[in-house]
Amino acid sequence: MSNLMGEEAEQRRRLTKMIAQTSRLGNYALGRAFEKAEIPISREQWDVLVMLWEKDGRAQQEFANFLLKNRASITSLIDNMEKNNLVTRVPNPTDKRSKLVYLTRRARDLKDKVLNIAEHAILEITDGIDLDEIESAVIILQKCLSNINRYHKQITED
């Protein structure tokens, strides 16, 4: 790719800035919605819960891979969820070095309420956007993710 100059450079910077702002503000809005409903979960904890509602009993490494976080960050995240009685860890019967994370009764009982709050937030965030516009945005963001993964691999191989 050649050096970016002029209008093209500005438009590409604007896109990456908008992606970052949308992510930060969307995460903040969802977190505030949970807080307002007196549900003590963060945006990252929401991701963990969704993964566990889809398949209970996952290794911590799965969360690290999905959330793109290191092992220490995931351990801290799961520790906080354990303190809030949302998850519990048990030794992995097939790999004694790891633990599996399971939902607690409290987390299972919160599922419908949390999903309703998240669905409402998503509808508010995407209000006024036609489905064809959403599909176009998804295609663009998939291309960005692919480029990020390629670039990340390139800069970490050296």
Automatic annotation (TrEMBL):
InterPro entries referenced in this protein's UniProt entry, alphabetically: HTH_MarR-typ, WH-like_DNA-bd_sf, WH_DNA-bd_sf
SMART domains referenced in this protein's UniProt entry, alphabetically: HTH_MARR
UniProt-listed SUPFAM superfamilies: Winged helix' DNA-binding domain
Name of a matching Pfam family: MarR
Top-level taxon of the source organism: Bacteria
GO MF, one example: DNA binding
Residue stretches making up the HTH marR-type domain: 12-146
PROSITE patterns per record: HTH_MARR_2
Keywords of the record: DNA-binding, Transcription, Transcription regulation
Protein name: HTH marR-type domain-containing protein
